Amino acid sequence: MFSISEHVKALDYKVSRSTFGRVFRLDGSGHAKERKGSKFLTEIRAGLTTFFTMAYIIAVNASILTESGGTCVCTNTADPSCSSDVDYNACLIDINRDIITATAVIAGIGSFAFGFFTNLPVALAPGMGLNAYFAYQVVGYHGTGNVSYRLALTAVFVEGFIFVFLSLIGMRQWLVKIIPASVKVASGVGIGMFLTMIGMSYSGIGLISGSSATPTDIAGCAPQYLDPVIGNCVSHKMTNPTMWIGILCGGMLTAYLMSYRVKAAIIIGIAVVSILSWPRDTPFTYFPHNASGDSMFEYFKQVVAFHPIQHTLAAQDWNIGQVGGHFALALFTFLYVDIVDATATLYSMARFSGVVDPETGDFPRSTLAYCCDAIAISIGSLFGCSPVTAFIESGAGITEGGRTGLTAMTTGASFLISIFFAPIFASIPPWATGCTLILVGCMMMRQVTAINWSFIGDAVPAFVTIATMPFSYSVAYGLIAGLFTYTVLNGMIYITKLITRGRIQPPDADLAEYWTYKPSGNPPWFIKAVQGKLWRTGRFTSMDSHSVAGGTEASEKELVEGVAMRVTTRDTNEG
């Protein structure tokens, strides 16, 4: 063991002292801004940790986006679920395999490029929440929404370039600041509740279903006992073996491992349920003895195979005239949630890894980081994926010692290798990932304590945002409802204050969160140009050094506490 340890130290030292180590600012490289504690092999291990922590996205993203129907066309209009259309279901199997490949490709390319160009230990992949909004609200279940799958990909493609533009001019931060802080935090919580509902439905473990008498009903029956029209269980509720194996092995086991902070807890849970579901002669098999099951099993037996993207590659449709309003709404929601999500996650991970400048409150190459993320969004849409974003699971790799872009590059390389194991990832059943969605919802719920519950003008809009997202099955409607409630309620309070000249105010008005349409801090350069203040300091203000905060450490802390979509309460209270 001593000899191995010495060899490891010797390799770390050799790499650190090389040009390679200097480029990535490894500890001991001699670079003026070397990352303290960063070692080559530690970065590799951290990258693998991040991969195993977030690899679930390959199966989960494919499962969710397949629910949209993709580019498949159902010819049986009498059956909304198209379950009786053999050709359509065969097409869906191909779509699922396409998206598995696409998810692995864009996560690999995005993470590798992000790590190489920014030297930050943050991985990219199609974001949870946005993929659900894409599949269930924009496109709709099996294409029943207002925008087709092809048009939705166009919206994602355009959003990426808009995001690049906003990143370059510094407007991203300004847009985030004018949204009320509690509504921003509530958006993340609402998305978590939305994912929980999806995980409990038949897109997951099948615990709940629709009903003719109530909005939802307890389910848990085998598919043959479902009402073909309403979708509720006619009989045999809570008897489906796939539901119970998903709950016990996919949910309880994963939560148990997470309690001991096992890095690959989610992967282990998905793997256990999937392996148990692969034998054909069990009541919970994923490969039943029918035409569809036979086809899936033949593909599964290949184990190692490369599935080329056939149906979703460059599938954009640029004819947006007929659904312009719905297209614009989808584009705005994608853009807004991405701005909030990426801003909070990237800054939080940069601060967690210790690279934030204490004087400027900025992290190195921040504008380039946001541009890389934005370009990955557009590239991902070309492969058929929903918006790509920075993953909060990158914190697992940082905890393992990741400090440089080598961590993200290792994660990206791992995703690219996984492309050749598509038959395995394509054979992960929905009940294996259903509890994953529920657990992700649980983790996103933790930030609810950051909402200002002390003042009704902040609490009610936040609650409306949280409640509307899952119950309307829409992220967009939840955001709109929250902003509408905030505007009307606080507008009435403000008008009353003006009319009475301040004599009538809520007794707890001093507990309200501060909001202004002129947020503090360094404004974007285009606003300063309009105000004639661009050159007032005697030098041009660098967009790179001010792209996230442009102010003090306190303003950064205020930002993260206000907009963190998936950052834990512990993270937001650091610094």
TrEMBL record:
InterPro entries: Azg-like, NCS2. Belongs to the nucleobase:cation symporter-2 (NCS2) (TC 2.A.40) family. Azg-like subfamily. It is a multi-pass membrane protein. The keyword Transport applies. It is found in: Membrane. Keywords: Membrane, Transmembrane, Transmembrane helix, Transport. GO terms for biological process: adenine transport; guanine transport. GO terms for molecular function: purine nucleobase transmembrane transporter activity. The chain crosses the membrane at residues 104-127, 147-169, 181-202, 241-257, 327-347, 412-439, 451-469, 475-495. This is Xanthine/uracil permease family protein-like protein. GO terms for cellular component: plasma membrane. It comes from Hyaloscypha variabilis (strain UAMH 11265 / GT02V1 / F). The keyword tRNA-binding does not apply.
